[in-house]
Write a structure and sequence with these properties.
The structure is a homotetramer.
Chain A: E1 2-6, E2 12-16, E3 28-36, H1 39-45, E4 62-69, E5 81-84, H2 94-97, E6 122-125, E7 132-134, H3 141-144, H4 150-160, E8 169-173, H5 177-186, E9 193-198, H6 201-210, E10 214-217, H7 223-230, E11 236-241, H8 246-255, E12 256-264, E13 272-274, H9 276-279, E14 285-287, H10 296-304, E15 314-319, H11 323-331, H12 333-336, E16 340-344
Chain lengths: ~350, ~350, ~350, ~350
C-alpha cells in the first residue's frame, strides 16, 4: 500500500509500505477513506518530537472501513464504518479506568507517533473496542474526521480545562484550526465575550464569522494592552493558549484576571518563563492536557444530529495520493488560507 | 504606642508611632495581645515587595482585644477577644461575594502591606465585621494566632488547591512553618504518603514527627531522583511548593505525575522556567493563590475543640517589646531552629 | 401609600398602608417603579405558607428608585435606579460567606413573606448594600425585573443544580414562567434535547418557540411512556420539576436515567412518595434549593448587553393601581394565556 | 462442587451444583478461598429482589485463586490470587467509560443476582480483566474480602456522595457493617463529629470504639430531638442512611441542615415519604448509588500497606461448608453480635 512516511527532520515521502496486519487479538485493520493533517504533524517534521523515528507513517486522524478484525474484538466487524480516535485506550489500565485515556499504559497518542498512523491506505488500530467509534454508513466523513482530534482537543484542553462558563470573558490566542475549534466549542457554554488573537487578519475574519465577539491582531505587539483596555484592566476569565510558543503563552499570563484559568492547548518545543513573582498571589489555575477524547461520543452525537457544524473547519480538499502537495499547502497556512485539509482515498 | 516599623530595604525599628484611630465607621481598633512574624515579613525586609513603603508598621497576624468600635460595626464590642485575619474582606464586592476574599476590592492582604499592621500595641482593622473572628475569653492565644495566616495558607493554597485526597502521594517542598502547616492540614485528607523535602535535617526531623512518611534532604541535588525512585518513576500526585524560589519550583515540575497537581504556596521574587515542552501533554494543573481565609471558621473550630494542635508550630516566645531580637532569631531560622515565634504584649 | 395586602387565606386587598421608613442603618427605602406577581404569591393566597400573616404586603420582585438611605449604606444614593433581589443577604453570616444567601441568618426570602414586600408604592430593603443591584438609568425595567427572582431561580435551582451540560437530554416538567425560565437558561449549556412537559398546549407552543426540541402534553397520562420511548428507554439526564405537586414530581422520578439529576424548583405544599425501592441503586441526585441569587450579576450583564432576552416572559401589562385585576388574570393563567404580568407605577 | 443456592423466598440450601466453566473468552473461573455474607443476601432471602430466581447461587464478595482462564483474558493467569469485585465491569460501554461501573451494560451487580455468585467452591467471573484485582500471595484474605463490597460501598455511596469534609457534622443512621464501614471511611476526611444512630447498644459501643464521637440509641423514638439538641438546632451537614427502611430515612430528612447532603446507602424494599413541603427551600442534596467500586484500588492499597484496618469488621469465622449455620448466625445479628462473618474454604 501507499503511505506518507517520515524520514527525519524535514523529510517526508509518499511511498510503498507493507499493508498492516493484525498483531494483537484486540487489533483491527482499517481501510482509511478520509484523513487530514494536524499541526502536530508539522511539529514532527521540524524534529520537535524526537520519539518519532525515521520510517514512521504519520497521521492520527481518520475515518475508514474495517478491513480485518482481531479475534478478541467484540464491537466491530469487517465492513463497519468507523471514526479513529487520535488517542488509543485499552479501557483496563488505571489511567483508562479514571478517564485519562491520553495516558493509557499501552495506548495514549501512539498513532503516527510510536506506531504507524493514518496517512496511509490502511492502518492498524490497537485496542479497537475502546479506540474506535461506530459511524452510520451515510455519515459525512469530512465533518466526522474533525472529531478524531481537533474538536475534542479544543473542547477538553481548552474549554473544559479553562472552565468556560456563561458570562465569562474568554481570550483565545491563536486562530488556527485548534483555536477555532476552541472557539466553536466555547460557545457551548455561552461566555459573554470571546476575544480572538492572531497575527493573520484572514483568520481573524473567519473567527469573527464563527462567533468571536472581538478580534485582536497581535502583530503590532499591543495585544496585551488592547485586551486590558477592553476589560477595563480587569483581565480575562479564561485564556486559551492555542499556538505553542513563549510569546503567545506570555500574552495569556499577562491578561489573566485574578481567579482566572489559563488552559494550554499548544504543543510547545521550548520552556516558557512563568511570572510567579507576580502570579503567586493571583489565584490562577494553569492547565495542560493531551486530549483524552472523553467528549468524543457527545461531539459525535452533536455532529450527526446537525447541532454542531464541524465541517466549517475544512478549507481544502485533496485526493490522498496528493498528500505531498497537501502538506505543502498546509505548511503555508497563512498564505494559502488553510484551516483543515481533507484527504480522501478512492482506493478500494 | 510602640510598633515595628519598616524603613526601606533591610531596615526595621521598634519605635513610637501614633496610636491608630477609627477612620471608617466599619473599622475597629484592636489592642494586640499576641502576634507573630511571617516569612513574608522577611521578604518585605529584603525589598521584594515594593508596595510596602518606608514608615509602614509590619505584621498581618494577631490576636487581641477590641479597644474602639466604629459606628457601623455590628458584630463586635469593646472588650471582645478576636482573631485578626491576614486578609481583610468587605463582604460586598464581587470578589468577596464569590469567596475570593484575597482580592477584595477594598481589602485583601493590606495589613502590614499597604496599611499599618499588627506588630504594634494597637492596630486598626477595616471591615471589622467580616475580617475578625470572635474568640472565647479563655482560648489559647498561641494556638489561635496560627490561624491568622499560616494554617489557612497551608490548607487553602497547598492542600485544597492541590486537591489532596485519600491514597495520594503528596510531596511538600520546604519544611519551614508554611510547609509544615501544609503537612498538618494535608493529613485531614488521609493521603497515602507525605514526602517532605528540605535542606535542613532538623526541620525534616520535625516533619517526620508531624507525620511525614518520607523525608528527603535535597542538599545533595538528588531530590528528584530520590522521589522518582520512591514512586517507581510514576511521580507524585500532588507537589506543594512552599519555598518560593526557582530551584524548589523546579523539583515540583520534575516529580509531578501525569494528571497531577502543583500547588504553589511560596512567595516568589523572580520568574521560573516552566517546562511546557515536556508538560504540555502531561495533564497537570498548576495553581497559585493568596489565601482567602475561607477555611478559618473550620480551622478555628478544630483548634478550639482540641482536634488540631496548631501550637505545634510554636518554637520560640518573646515579649512584644523584644521584637527586634525576635526578628534576628527568626531570620536565622536554620541555626536557631525556629518555626514560629510568639510575641506577647503585656501592656494594657 | 397604596399596597397589596394579604388578609389570610384567599383574601387580598389594594389599600392604604404607612409608607415604610428606615429601621436599621443598613436599610434603604425604594420607590417601586415596576413589580410583578410570582406563582409563590398565589401559594401564599392559598394559605400554603403559614409564615405569612394577615396584614403583610406581598411581593418580592421589583425595580425602583432609591428614596431614602440608611446611615450605614455605602453603595447606594437617593435617586439611584436599582434591581431588588428576592433574597436579602447580610454578606456577613456563615451562610452568606459561603454563597448560600438564601439562608442568610438575618435575611433570605423575607420580602413579602416575613416583612412587607414590593407590591406597593414603596418598600424597605434591609441589608441594602448586599441585596440590591445598581441599574443604568436607561435599562429596560420589564426585562430587568425578571431577574429579581424567576431567572436566577430557573438557572440556579433548575439548570445549575441539575448540572445541565452539552449533549444532555433535559426534561422540564411545567411550562409556566418558572419552567420557561429554566428552558431559556438551560440553553446556556447547550443540551442536546430539551423536552417540555405541560397540560396546556398554548404553553407548550410557547416552549417550542423558546427552543424546546420536544413538547409533551401530559393530560393523557402518558408523559412517562412518551419520554421513555423518545429516549429509547434510557431516560433523561436531567429532570427539572417546575410545578410543585406529587404528580409532576412522580414524572421526574419515573423518567430519570441512571446517574441522572432531578432538580426540584417547584414550591410543594405536601410530601411526595419517593421510590427508593427502585431508585436506591440508580445513582441519582435529587436537589432542592431556594434561589441564592448568586447568578444575578451574570444574568444582569447578559440582559443589559442584549444577549439574554428576559422580556420574552412578559405577557401582560397593568398599572400598579390595577393590581387586583392583575392578580385575577394571573390566577387564570391557562385561560388568560399569562406568563408574567408587569405592574408599572406611575406615581412619583 | 458445593454451593449455597437460593430456592425462593426464605429458602436456601448448601448443595451440589455443576462446577462453572468459561462461557465467554473474557471469563475466568475462580476457586473461592474466602467469602462472606452481605445484608443484601438477607434481602434476597426475604424475596425483596425479585430478579433473583430459584436455583441461583448467592454471594457477590470473595477472594480466590484463578482456576481457568478464558482465551481473551490478558491480565490474569491460572494460580493468581485475586479480589472479586461485587460489580462486574466490561470497561467498554458508555457507563464504564465514565466510571459508572455499577450500570455496565453487560455487568453491574450480577454476581449472586442474575448469574451465579461466590458462595460456592468455584465461581465464573465475566469481564475478568476489568472485574478482578490482583493480590499478593501473602495478603490477608479476611481483610481484603471486605473490599469486595462493603468498604467501597460505605465510602462511595455514603462518604463521597455525602461529600464529607473536614469540620463537618456527620450522622450515620445504622451501625451495622455498612454503617460502620461508612464510619471508618468518613474518618479519611476528618469530619468534626460523627454521630452514630442505632437501636442496638452493642453496635453503638463498637461504633464508639471505631471513632464515633457521639452515639444515639434511637429505640426511644427521640433520635431526631437528641441530634437537633446536640447541633443547637442547626442540623447535620451529612446524613448517611445505612439501613433501608422508611423510619431511618425519615431521621435523615429531619436532621439535615440547610445545604446538607443525605446519602442513601440502604437497600430499600418500599417507597419513602419525602417531605418536599419543607425541604423544597432547604438546598439539600439527596443521592442514591449502587457502588461503582472505583475506589477499590485506593482502598486495596490502604489495606495492604496497613493504613486501613478492614479486618475490624470481622466478628465471626466459619468453614465454607458451615455456611448454613453462618447464615443463621448472620440473620440474628443483634443477638449474636455479628458484624461480618468470614467463610473460609479449605477445599483444593
Amino acid at each position: 500500500m501507499k503511505a506518507l512516511v517520515y524520514h527525519g527532520r524535514g523529510n517526508r515521502n509518499w511511498e510503498d509500505k507493507q499493508k498492516p496486519k493484525i498483531i494483537d487479538a484486540t487489533d483491527v485493520v482499517v481501510r482509511v477513506t478520509t484523513t487530514t493533517i494536524c499541526g502536530t504533524d508539522l511539529h514532527i517534521l521540524k524534529g520537535d518530537l524526537p520519539a518519532v523515528t525515521d520510517g514512521r507513517i504519520l497521521g492520527h486522524e481518520g475515518v475508514g472501513v474495517i478491513d480485518e478484525v482481531g479475534a478478541n474484538v467484540v464491537s466491530f466487524h469487517k465492513g463497519d464504518k468507523v471514526l479513529i480516535s487520535c488517542v488509543t485506550s485499552c479501557g483496563r489500565c488505571s489511567f483508562c479506568r479514571k478517564g485519562m485515556f491520553s495516558h493509557c499504559r499501552s495506548g495514549g497518542w501512539i498513532l503516527g507517533n510510536t506506531i504507524d498512523g493514518t496517512q496511509a491506505e490502511y492502518v492498524r488500530i490497537p485496542h479497537a473496542d475502546t479506540s474506535l467509534y461506530p459511524l452510520p454508513p451515510e455519515s459525512d466523513e469530512e465533518a466526522v474526521v474533525m472529531l478524531s482530534d481537533i474538536f475534542p482537543t479544543g473542547l477538553e484542553c481548552g474549554v473544559l480545562n479553562g472552565q468556560v462558563k456563561p458570562g465569562d470573558i474568554v481570550a483565545i490566542i491563536g486562530a488556527g484550526p485548534i483555536g477555532l475549534s476552541a472557539l466553536l466549542t466555547a460557545k457551548l457554554y455561552s461566555p459573554a465575550e470571546i476575544v480572538m488573537v492572531d497575527m493573520d487578519d484572514n483568520r481573524l475574519e473567519i473567527a469573527r464569522s464563527f462567533g468571536a465577539t472581538q478580534v485582536v491582531n497581535s502583530s503590532n505587539g499591543k495585544a496585551i494592552e488592547t485586551i486590558m483596555t477592553f476589560t477595563n484592566s480587569a483581565g480575562v476569565d479564561v485564556a486559551i493558549e492555542a499556538v505553542g510558543i513563549p510569546a503567545t503563552f506570555d500574552i495569556c499570563q499577562s491578561i489573566i484576571a485574578p481567579g482566572g484559568h489559563i488552559a494550554n492547548v499548544g504543543v510547545h518545543g521550548k520552556p516558557v518563563e512563568l511570572h510567579l513573582e507576580r502570579l503567586w498571589s493571583q489565584n490562577i489555575t494553569l492547565t495542560t492536557r493531551l486530549v483524552d477524547t472523553i467528549t468524543t461520543p457527545m461531539l459525535l452525537q452533536a455532529v450527526l444530529s446537525g447541532r454542531l457544524d464541524a465541517k466549517k473547519l475544512v478549507s481544502h480538499r485533496f485526493d490522498l495520493t496528493d498528500i505531498m502537495k497537501a502538506y505543502d499547502t498546509f505548511a503555508n497556512a497563512a498564505k494559502e488560507r488553510v484551516l483543515k485539509v481533507i484527504l480522501k482515498s478512492t482506493a478500494k
